[in-house]
Amino acid sequence: MRYLPHTNEDISSMLQVIGIDTLDGLFSSIPEDCRRAGDLNLPKPLSEWELNDHMSKLAGSTAVSPEYKVFMGAGSYEHFIPESISYLLSRSEFATSYTPYQPEMSQGTLQAIYEYQTLTARLLGMEVANASLYDGASALAEALLMAIRITRRKKIAVSSLIHPLYRRVVQTYLAPTCCQIVELPYLKNGRTDLITLDEIDDLAAVAVQSPNFFGCIENLQAIGKKTHDKDTLFITSFTEPLAYGLLKNPGSLGADIACGEGQSLSIPRSFGGPVLGMFASKMKYVRNMSGRLVGKTKDMDGKKGFVLTLATREQHIRREKATSNICTNSSLCALAAVMYMASVGGTGIRELARLNYDKSEYLKKEFKKAGFTISFDSTTFNEFVVKFPAGFETKYENLLDKKIVSGLPLATYYPELTNQYLFCVTETKTKEDMDALIRGVKS
Amino acid sequence: MKESLGTTGLILNEPMLWEKGKKGRCGFSYPQRDVESYHLDDELTGTGPDFPDLSEVDVVRHFTRLSQWNFGVDTGMYPLGSCTMKYNPKTNERQARLEGFSGAHPLLPTHLSQGVLKLMFQLEGFLSGITGMDAVTLQPAAGAHGELAGMLIIHAFHKSKGLHCSKIIVPDTAHGTNPASAALCGYRSVPVKSNEKGVLSAEAVAEIMDEDTAGIMITNPNTLGFFEENVKKIAEIVHSKGGLVYCDGANMNAVMGIVHMGEIGVDVLHLNLHKTFSTPHGGGGPGSGPVCVKKDLETFLPVPRVVKNNNRYLLSENFPDSIGKMHAFYGNVGVMIKAYSYILSMGPDNLKKASQLAVLNANYIRKKLQGIFHLAYDRPCMHECIFSDKLQKAQKITTLDIVKRLMDYGFHPPTIYFPLVVNGAIMIEPTETESKENLDLFIEACKAVANEAQDNPGLLRKAPTRCKVRRLDETTAARHPCLTG
Lengths: 443, 485
Prior knowledge:
Shape of chain B: globular
Strand order of the largest sheet of chain A: 2-8-7-6-5-3-4
Low-confidence stretches of chain B: none
CATH class of the largest domain in chain A: Alpha Beta
CATH architecture of the largest domain in chain A: 3-Layer(aba) Sandwich
Number of helices of chain A: 12
Number of domains of chain A: 2
Oligomer: heterodimer
Order of helices and strands of chain B: HHHHEHEHEHEHEEEEEHEEHEEHHH
Distance between the termini of chain B: 45 Å
Order of helices and strands of chain A: HHEHHHEHEHEEHEEEEEHHEEHEEEH
Largest sheet of chain B: 7 strands, mixed
Structural class of chain B: alpha/beta
CATH topology of the largest domain in chain A: Aspartate Aminotransferase, domain 2
C-alpha cells in the first residue's frame, strides 16, 4: 500500500528494538475480550484508477451546472470561483498543516487568518471578527449563547425569516438549557413583524436575518433601535455576505453581533459543507466570544508576527468554564474567503453585488411580465419568492427533466406558502438562462 | 550524525494585503453584464467594504509567500500527539473536487443527488463496520461538534426516561473539549484520576458513579497512549446505575481492526475523519466528527438521515426522538468524500496494518528516546508515547525550549503540556505514514537537542532560529489584543 512505507525488514528490525516478535504482540495490553474476532467487513481495496472510475460514476449522477441550471439559493449559492483561489488553496503548506498552536511554523496560516478577520470585520462593519466557525447555523447558535452569557437572561427572540434550518440548529443547541425561544412572525411585505416585541421583556437578544430567507432586505436600523431601547443585544444573521458589497452593513445599522454563512465567498457548495461560519461583534464583547482569534504581536527581535490569542476563553485552557466547546475553525474555508475578498477587491465586490441585484431584478420583472405574482414587495438582493397557480409541482417536475431547477418549494418550511417558490439568481446565470426559465414556466 | 533536515532557504517578506494594491486593480474576471441596471433605494445602499484592489498576480504572490512560512505534513514529520497527523492522500482531493460533488446544491431533489447520498450511506456503513457500532451520523462538522452531538444524545436518552442527571464523569486525562461539550448540556464534570499505570481503575469509577450521573466520557486509547483495559468493567458499573458510556474516538487510529468498540460497553463514540481517516487538517479545519451509537440510541441521532428504500436513497426527517439538527445541511460532505476514498483505497487489511504500524512507530520512538527524555510511564504504549522535561530540569530547560529547538532541526513539535497529568508533557504520535528512516532522523534530532540542553542550553532558550520569526510575545498579544488591521 503506497501510504505505508514499512518494508518487512523495517518491521523486523523495529520489533527487535522494542523487544517483541510480532506486530500482534504490540497489542498485548488489550484484554482478549475487547478484541475483534474476525476481519473488518469492508470492500477490498481499489487501485487509484479503479477509485477514479468509481467516484466519477457516483459524482456523475448529481444535477450540477453547467448541465443543469439551478435557480436555487436558500443558504447555498452558486458563484464563480477563480482558478487562482482553488490553486492557492491546494498548496499543501496550507492544507496539510494543523491548528497554528506553534506560531513560528505557522505564520502563513496566522497572517492569512488575521487578514480574514480584518476583511470580515470591514465587510460587516464590525469591530472584531473571529477566525470562523463551522457554518452559518452554528454561528447563529453560538451568537445566541454568547448573548445569554453576556446578559445573563434566558429568553431570546428569533425572526421566523431566519433560515428555517438555522433555527432548527438553534433549537438543538438550546434544548438542554432552560432558555425560551420566541419566534417573531413575518409581515405581508416579507419583513419581520416586530409587534410582539413590545410584549416581551427580559430578552437576551433579538436575532434577524438580512437579506432574510425570502430574500427581502430587513429594516435593520429600525429593529436595532427597538432592540436597544429594550436594553437587549441585537444579532444579525446572513446567508449571502455578498449583499454587503452593495447594501449597508449590519455594523453601521446597530448590530452587536453579526454572524452568518460565508459559503458565497468562493467556497464550493459541496452538498452543504464544508462551509464557513462568519462571526463578528463589538470589541467590548470579545472576551465572551467563542472560537479562535488571531492577534498581532512581536517576536524576540521586535519583528511583526501573529499568534492565536485570548485562549483563556477556550476549552483547552478553561475546560468546562470555556465560552464554547469549539476546538476548530473552518480555517481553509476562511482562507478561501480572504483570497476571494482580496481578488474581487473593494471596487469589484460592489460591482459584483450590483450585478447579482440587477440580474435578480431582471428575472423578477420577467416573472411579473409573464403574469406571475412576486409574493413580497420589499426590496430584495439576489433571491425572491414567486407565487404560481395551483398545480405548479407538475411543471416543476417537467422543468427538472429539462435540467432546470426552478427554485425551492417553500411549503416544506412554511406550510402556508403553498405554490410559492424561492428563486435565486447570481452572476452565473445569463439573460439567456433566465429567458429559458421563463419560457419553461410559461409553457 | 547525518545532516539534519532543518536549514534555511530564501523565503520572502510580504506586507499585509491592505498594504498592497492600487485602487482600480482587480483580480477577478467579471462576467458580461447582459441586463440593464435597476433602481435601488439610496436608503439601503452602503458605501461598500474597504477592501484593497489587487491584481491576480498580487493575490497569488501574496498567498504563495505566506504558504512558504507554514509547515505541513507534506513538508515533514508532524508528530503531534492525539492529532494523528498522517499523510493526506492526493487522490482524495481529486475525488472531493469532482464537479458532481463540489457543485452539488444541498437542497436538490433527492433523485438528482443519488450519488452523493449513496456515498454517505455507504460511509456510515464503513464506519459502523470499523467501530463495531450499530448506527452512524455524519452530520457533526468536527470532533468537538461530535462530542456535543453525543452528549445531546445522552441527554435526550435520560430525558426520554424522565430522568435529569446533573453530572458526568470525565477522567483527568481527557481533552478539554470533553468537559466543555458536557457543560453545554448542563452537566457538571466530575473528575476521576487515572491510576499509576495511566489508566482508569474500575474502583475509582465505582466510588463516584451514582444515579445522578449521566455517564462517563472515556478516551480510548486514552491521551497517555494506553488502552483503557478496565473499560468493560467500568461500563458495567456505569450501566448498572443507569448511565451511558461515551467514548472519544480521537485515538481510533491505534485500534482499527483490533478492537470491537461495540462489544466493550461503549454506547456512543465519535470519530475524527481528519485524524484516523486521513483528511487534511487545513490549518485548523474543516474536519468532520461522525458519531456512532448502539442500536438503542439510534432513535436519537440527528436528522435528516440518509435511508435506503427500494434501491433509492432518501433524506428522512421521520425520526421523532431525534435530537434535531447539528448543521444547516448534512455536515462536511467534502470531508466525508475524502474519508470514503481513503477507506476504499486502503481496504480492510491495510486499515488494520495502519493501526499496527502506528503502534509500532510509537513504541520504536518510546524505546529509542527512553533515557534521552524522561518517559512518563515505563510500559508499552499504543499510538503515542509521553515524555517530559524532567531530565532537563537541572539545566533549567523546559519542554517549550526543547520543542522550539526541534523546529531548527526540521520537525514540527509534538503536542506539549498535555495531558495535564504529566508535568511538562511531550506527547509524540508519529503515525503509520512515517518510515523508519524518518523516525531515525527525528530520534537523532531529539538526541542532538538533549545533548545541547546539557552542553549549550542557551541554544534551546533562543530557539527557533531558522523559522520566519523567533519566539513570539503571546502575553502582550493577550493583554492588548490587536485582532484586526
